[in-house]
## 1
Amino acid sequence: MDLRKLQKLVVSALEDIKGRDIEVLNTTKLTSLFDRIVIASGDSNRQVKALARNVQEKVAEAGGEVLSVEGEDNGEWVLVDLGDIVVHVMQPAIRAHYNLEELWAARPAKRRLAVEEDGAAA
C-alpha cells in the first residue's frame, strides 16, 4: 500500500474513535526501519485499545498488513507495527513520560545548542 494512503488511513481510523493530539513524524532521515511514526492519545485503557483495534481493522480492510501489535493487554500504550508506519496509541500520562515526539525529533535543539556553546567556550 502507498505510504501516503496508509498514513491517511491510519489518521482517519484514529479520528473515527476520537483519538486526540494525533501527530505524524517523518523518520526517513533518522532510521531505515520505518518511514513514519503516528502518535495519538486516548483517555482510558478502553479507548486506547479501541483506537489501536480500529487502526488494525481499517488497514486490514484496505488490504494492508499488520505486522505486530504490542501492549493490548493493559491498554496504557499500544504499538501497532504496519511496516512503513509504526502507530503508538497512549494514555496522556504515558505519552508525556516517554515523550516520543522529542525522542524522534530530527534536531533536539536544546541539547545541540548546549553542546555547541560548551565547545565554543573551551
## 2
Amino acid sequence: MRKNNSTNALNEQFLFGICELNSAISMISGRWKSQIIYSISEGNNRFHLIKKELPNISEQVLGRQLKELETHRLIVKRELPDTVPMGIEYILTNKGKDIIPILKDLCEWGKEYAEGKEILINECS
C-alpha cells in the first residue's frame, strides 16, 4: 500500500487535478483490466468464466483487478442466492458499459499503430 504523502501519490494527485484523462486511464490501466471489462461485456460474468477466457491471468491477480474495477465503479458484484456454494457474478455498471466503445476504438487504433509499425511524420501534425 502506498502512503498518501509519497512522491508517487502526490504526482498522481497533481496529474489527476490537471487532466481528467489521467484519471480515466488510471481506471483501466493494468495488464488485464480492459480484457476483463470486455470479457464481462461478452457474458463471461463469473470468476471461473473470466479465468477460462483469460487463462494466463493468475487467480490472485484476477481477484485484485476485479476489486479495483469494482472500486472504480466500472463493475458491481452480485451474489447469486440459489447457488451452492454462494455464487458471485460481475455486472458492468453504466460507467463500465460506456467504456466498451472506447476500448473498441483503442483496439482499432492499436491495430493501426501498434508498436513496431512505422508512423509517418506527417501523420503526427
## 3
Amino acid sequence: MDLNESVRTPASWVVVGLDNGGTCNNATVLDATGQFLVEHMTESPSRVQEGPELAVEALAEAFNAVLDLTSTPLTLVRAVGLDTPGPASAGGVISSKGSTNFSQEAWRGFDIRGALEKRIGLPVIYNNDANAAALYAHHRHFGPVAAQHSSVAAIVGTGLGGGVVEGGRVIRGAAGMAGELGHVQIPMHGVLEDGQPLPQCNCGFAGDVESIASLTGITNNLLPYWLTRFPDHPLAAEPIARAAKLLRGYGEQDDPLALAVFGQQARAIGKLFTIAANFTDPSAYFLGGGVVEAAPAFRAWFLDTVREHTQLRREQAAAATFALVPDLDMAGARGAAVAALESVQSA
C-alpha cells in the first residue's frame, strides 16, 4: 500500500481508523488502494471520563461522522481499526488496573474493542496508540516495500510508548504488551551526571527509558535535579508540573537548562535504540511525540543527538535510517486504519 492522500468518494471498499484519546477521538478513512480520504484532523469529544458506555457511543459517533465527511456509504466499510492508550491486551481489553486515561473502576477489564464491534456491527481490529503510530510511520516511510523491512519507534509523551514492526506488521506479544519500550531498563553511564539520582518510574522500575524520556520523567526526575544546577532560572519560580510543560519552549530557544534535560532524554533513547540494534537490527528507527511537534531546528537537533548516541556497527549504520514519525496528530488514526486494511487483505 502506498498510503497516498486523496480526498475523494471511494470507488471501492474502505476501512475506517479511530484514534481514541483522553479528551478527543480522531478518525480517518483508507480505501482498498491505500489512499487516505481525510487529510486533516476530525476531532470530536472522546468522553472517556464519563465511563465506557458513553465513550463507546462517542466512538460510534466519530465513525458515522467521518463516513458523512467523506461521502462513504456504510455498505463499503469492511472493518474498523481502533487504537487507545494502554495498557490493554492484544484483544483490546483495558488493564485490570485501569490506566491514566481509563481511571474509573468501570474501565478495569473492559473490552472496548468488543463493545465497539457490537455497537457498529463491523469487525474491529485493535492496537494501542503507540503501536498504531509506529505502524503508520513504518508504512509511510517504506511504502510498497514495507513488508520487506523492520522498524522500532519511540513515542515520547506523558510516558514513553513504542512499537516494534517486523515484516510490515506490529509485534503484539503473548499478552499484547510487546513494544512497551518505555519500561526497558537502560545503562545510565553516559546519560546521568555524576551524583544525579537514579530516575524512578511510576511503574516501579528504576532507570527505565520512561523515567527519563517522558514528560513524567521531566517532572519527577530531570527538572528537579537540573533546577538545583540552575537555581536562578525563570522556571524555578513555576510549579514543577507547569515548568515541565514550558520546558520545550525554552529548548527551542537554546536555553542551557532545557538543552541539558532534553540532551539526557535523547541519550536515553539512543541507549534504547542500541539495545534494539542488538535485538532486532531494524531497518529504521522512528522518533515521535512532542519533539516532533517542536520547531524544526530543535527537533533536528534532538534526532541528531539520538542518532549520535545509538551505537551501531558499521554494517548496521549503512543499512538503517533515522526519521521522525510523520503527520503525528494523524498517525494514530492512520495506523489503526492500516492495521484494519492489512486484516481485511490477509483474511
## 4
Amino acid sequence: MMQGMDASKAALLEAGLAKIRARFIDSLEDRIDDFCAQLEILENPATAEAACTEIRAQAHKLHGICGSVGQPRMGALAAQVEHHIDSLLAGPRPLNTDFVDELLNALLDEMEQNVDGA
C-alpha cells in the first residue's frame, strides 16, 4: 500500500490498474495479428523496408505501454525490435531482415504466452 493512502483508495487504485492490465492483455490478439501480417510483408525484399518501418512503429508503441502494465520482459523485447530496426534502416541496402524476424518471433512468443495465461 502506498504511504499515506488509506486502504479503500489503495483498493480502488489497484482495481483500476487491474482493468487497464486486462484491457492490455485483450489488445494483444490484435497486436499479434498486426505483427504477423507485417512478418509476411517482410519476406518480400521489395516491401521489407516498409514492413520494418511499420514493425518499428508498432514495437515502439508496445514498448511504451509495457512498463505501465507490468510487462517488463515484453517491453524489453519490443525495445530490442525497435532499436535493431533503427540500426538496420540506417545501414546498407538491400536490408537483411533475418534478425528482425528472429526478434519479432521472440516478442510474439512472449505476447502469446500472456494471452494464453490470461
